[in-house]
Amino acid sequence: MAAISRLAKPSSVSYLRRCLSSAVASESNPPYTSPPKPDYNLIHKDPKNRHVQWVFLGCPGVGKGTYASRLCNLLGVPHIATGDLVREELASTGPLSQQLSEIVNQGKLVSDELIVSLLSKRLQAGEAKGESGFILDGFPRTINQAEILEGVTEIDLVVNLKLREDVLLEKCLGRRICSECGGNFNLASINAKGENGNPGVSMAPLLPPPQCMSKLFTRSDDTEAVVKERLHVYNEKSRPVEEFYRSRGKLLEFDLPGGIPESWPKLLEALNLNDCEEKQSAAA
């Protein structure tokens, strides 16, 4: 199983940049045929014997970072979230900071060129530390990015987290961050009724400890207008990426049934990782 340190052809970073120059020129989506059924036996091997290389897809605010980071801790691989890379750059005084700030505050997607630049920088740092395996969160978001990624490494599995749009909106508007400890919390108490034959969704709030309550703030892009724009942009630009991986038999659709207590066990079951968590708990 190839590790991040083996992405090079001879250098994954330079290869990403070379691919970008040709891939970004075309916005047309390739035709797709009926998708084959995923070969889940391929991805359900003992993680101790291989380094997983997975991607998490899903609308903004669906919880990609939450579940990807939990799986990374469970499997012992790095969690590479492009959203975090963007926020780190925004907090810096780097040359991209102001440009990124304008894009993010408008709810727009960051361009392929900027995202690949940030990801290349992160991969370089990972290679230097000898990292292997990964779960990508927030990349790829466009067909061009998916094609660039396919050119440099094999992706074993793409997990597509799904949640009703009205619940997503309420969830995003309830997000808060503690300015002191950096913890992420959510004040929304969601009880959405079932509709169109689909079950209802309930999510309890994730409240901060008392010492954080007075230090909470809302991200500048967590307004109703910006969240709705992000969802619109996702549907327009990123939905085709789901079909890109579906056509390759690598897409696992997962409907979140509720909050973490309800969803986490079911996600582990869908990934056939129940035994892995049990072993980790027994060893703790």
UniProtKB/TrEMBL annotation:
GO terms for molecular function: AMP kinase activity; ATP binding. It is an enzyme of class 2 (transferase). It catalyses: AMP + ATP = 2 ADP. Gene3D superfamilies: P-loop containing nucleotide triphosphate hydrolases. Its EC number is 2.7.4.3. It comes from the Eukaryota. SUPFAM superfamilies: P-loop containing nucleoside triphosphate hydrolases. Keywords: Kinase, Nucleotide-binding, Transferase. InterPro entries: Adenyl_kin_sub (IPR006259), Adenylat/UMP-CMP_kin (IPR000850), Adenylat_kinase_CS (IPR033690), P-loop_NTPase (IPR027417). Monomer. NCBIfam families: adk. Belongs to the adenylate kinase family. This is adenylate kinase. It comes from Carya illinoinensis. The lineage of its organism: Eukaryota, Viridiplantae, Streptophyta, Embryophyta, Tracheophyta.
